[in-house]
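Ticket reopened. Same input as before:
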Amino acid sequence: MSYELGTLMHQRDRKRAAYLFRTKSLGKNSIQENEELLGSFEPDWSKFENVFMEELLPKDISKQGQKRTSQFILEVVDILIDYIRKSNDRSTKVLDFHHPHSLKEALGHCLNLDEDPRDLEQILSDCKETLKYCVKTGHPRFFNQLSTGLDMIAMTGEWLTATANTNMFTYEIAPVFTLMEEIVLTKMREIIGWQEGKGDGIFAPGGAIANLYAVLAARYRICPEVKEEGMRVSPRLIMFTSEHSHFSIKRNAAILGIGTNNCIAIKTDAQGKMIPEDLEKQIEIAKASGGVPFFVSATGGTTVLGTFDPINEICDVAFKHGLWMHVDCAWGGGALLSKQYKKLLNGIERADSVTWNPHKLMGATLQCSGILLKEKGILENCNSLRANYLFQQDKHYDISYDTGDKAIQCGRHNDVFKLWLMWRAKGDIGFESQIDRLMDLSIYLQGQLREREGFEFVIEEPEFLNVSFWYVPKNMRHMPKDSQRDVLLDKVAPKIKAMMMERGTTMVGYQPLGDLPNFFRMVISNPATIPGDIDFLIDEIERLGEEL
Amino acid sequence: MSYELGTLMHQRDRKRAAYLFRTKSLGKNSIQENEELLGSFEPDWSKFENVFMEELLPKDISKQGQKRTSQFILEVVDILIDYIRKSNDRSTKVLDFHHPHSLKEALGHCLNLDEDPRDLEQILSDCKETLKYCVKTGHPRFFNQLSTGLDMIAMTGEWLTATANTNMFTYEIAPVFTLMEEIVLTKMREIIGWQEGKGDGIFAPGGAIANLYAVLAARYRICPEVKEEGMRVSPRLIMFTSEHSHFSIKRNAAILGIGTNNCIAIKTDAQGKMIPEDLEKQIEIAKASGGVPFFVSATGGTTVLGTFDPINEICDVAFKHGLWMHVDCAWGGGALLSKQYKKLLNGIERADSVTWNPHKLMGATLQCSGILLKEKGILENCNSLRANYLFQQDKHYDISYDTGDKAIQCGRHNDVFKLWLMWRAKGDIGFESQIDRLMDLSIYLQGQLREREGFEFVIEEPEFLNVSFWYVPKNMRHMPKDSQRDVLLDKVAPKIKAMMMERGTTMVGYQPLGDLPNFFRMVISNPATIPGDIDFLIDEIERLGEEL
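Engineering reply: fixed in the latest deploy. New output:
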């Protein structure tokens, strides 16, 4: 089988890579020795036909097995570097779209799992085929999600994490990563504004679970006996969040046995911000009906409109009524790193808990979600079962570093290293300039849309990186803005999106919201994006819109 | 340039770094321009001193930026390959232990996060320093956890996952991985024995959360109104699990609002197996007290003793009383792949749900946990909130492939690719021979312990890969086996473990269990391990034990 190699690594780079491994793996440091090896080393790069994984480390620990292992790893890396290069090349597509049935056909038996092993040549080919059909989420013209981009430091950090392959369970098996988690969480709490970064926290598998931790802690504070006796002994607990908040708040009400009907949606104003007066009114109604309000979640950057709830005003209401104050800034938390834009989260230091996902605005690879709490120890009291067969109390080191018993997971992936490494490489100023730059692009996009015909904003003055708008095709522009037009407009974005995906040139999300017909939600979070990419998207929407 | 920690940033470098961030953020890409402005700066691209991440992709897309990116990646890979080689070298230590305070000292300001960025030379040094203090979980003599070993295919699969950096949210952004998840989960259900692999399932962030899904689904089946109304409207739901089961079952009772007091621990026999008669008795007691039994979890490979509950007998009791039958074989699930050992899980096809962690016995990197359910659709009914702003119903492709709304996460890490790739590379027969081989080693270890003086088994005939035993030092062997001896024996394993960690030569877990004093739990799950490594561990325990 002729295996087409990526083009980025020239023969010389390959030789160098091979030489690096060979010399390092033999533990030889002398330059002369290395050069001798480089001179005599003749790599055969298409050598994996009929070679199976059992011939790699850890099974074959011979010199040859070690060499083969490093060659195999370098082949995979070559494929990955090629993908990275293409993802950053604007002349390549963002995706090569196929409907599920046709993608199954295209991949054919490549997808099957059978009795017999495949050779490593096939495994390399599998990697290439997989990447061929991946959506290039790092492409400068991928605008579809809140999480976009591919940061090289985060990525290589994740590679190291996979190689270290340990569990954030105890200090015993993750000493360095445990210390890093403490350092990064402390830093995040300092940035939130809690004194000396004091408090508690943990990395959770995504913002939805981070929010779950917050509701759990709040429930424990008001009704600790629920842990042992269940929700049947508690009063009817009521929680509040805006109608624009992330759906995980409501889902957590379902999971925790609070019930979605006891999660009250607070009205929002024209900008999509929670109305504190409505919160107060709903709290009173809940109390009058015998319920016990205990939790409110303010959103710092809503999913669709990117709106920030007025945290200070919500805190005033919350604390007056004794509620736990949570801020879900999974999306907007990164703004805290910008001197110019941290005002969006004014008052956040008053919160009891904060969800903040560095895998969104800060550009860490998936996943990296922090839940930060003001009160030290509540996580452990709430979640600990003191399983002494897992968390031995008679260890020879300071077991306060064992974080496992405050998590709701047992095994827990190391999500901190990549973020720590990024922070080393960027510094605070690197994150700040990244966020300021994205905001500049958001303002640029807004200006462009205002200058062109046929674009209408969902909210007139977006304050963040979400810019939501309708594209109104020429033949609809004369129509009165009534429900009849809405019916037609509702179909425009899905149609343009479908054509866009078939072409594969760019990707942007759309959705309805309440009674509003489908609109585009442009998200600017990709550090690779430049103004030209934004122009490209607008042009593409216009072009496709006229084909309707 | 030495890799000395933290001494790299001179005033000039900082200035340059800050400058680069600002110019790049203005979209100026020309390195020549930058250099003109900086005057005397002369970069040496063969090294990474004074080179910052802004000079890599995606910021610098020039040929030089691409080359630099690939060089940087190869440098990281070189460090990782070196770590892999050392992890497989028996002459290296498993860990270089430091107490938390002294590790902080050793790493020094290398751990700090500051205003300013570090150059890539420092980042490479950070990676090396981090790995230096990692516990080598892939080392052939690391026996401390259920998850050990480092599989090259799983690891490179995880690297690809990090590079593809997408979210298992919708088919739209994870088309290939969504298909792979369907294929792998179907395969796992076939192996469980469900007809044609039908049913439902999802990958969860660890076994504890997989178990949470099971209890959620069971609660939904018996009391669907809990989703909207909360646990206050439900009868007092009671769940059952053996006293040796994983603590997450009980913790899930706390989380879900059932209450830990309503999670009843069923007695176990001398081998640690749940006693079906006690289950039936406890069900009757619960009913008599007005409770509603709804869920039982049988364990397939307990954490400490590696015991398998009698699934068929438990099913008989469970179904007689209308309970949801769950099998938590997070640890033992891999045994299903062995014709010889799948009998340990006889009856599993009768279960309603199964937790099975390929990151344990099957050797996938962390994390990879499946929750499999017999009933198609229950996950979605239970967890879906039909948030149409996230799961648009008018997409142009078959949206039954969008898995996001049945998850309790929103963003979800791609845990399937590495497992799929391993399965391609090993085939069923590869997994089977791996598991059979580990069982051979377990039998070997048991034989060795029987032949030597001073070793006593916790259970006489371990049936799986956990071998639990006491080491009784010479000066205690004459003592009668009474509580006085137990008090002394309780201190032996922690002391030996502490010395073992200080020496760093091998690592094995210990814990108490019920009234039993601390004992060693040897787990054989590392494909790198050979009989000599087992001899080494026993010798080491004897050697250290005599130093007490």
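Chain B touches chain A through 182 residues (CB under 8 Å). Residues 1-12, 22-45 of chain B have pLDDT under 50 and may be disordered. Please confirm and we'll close it.
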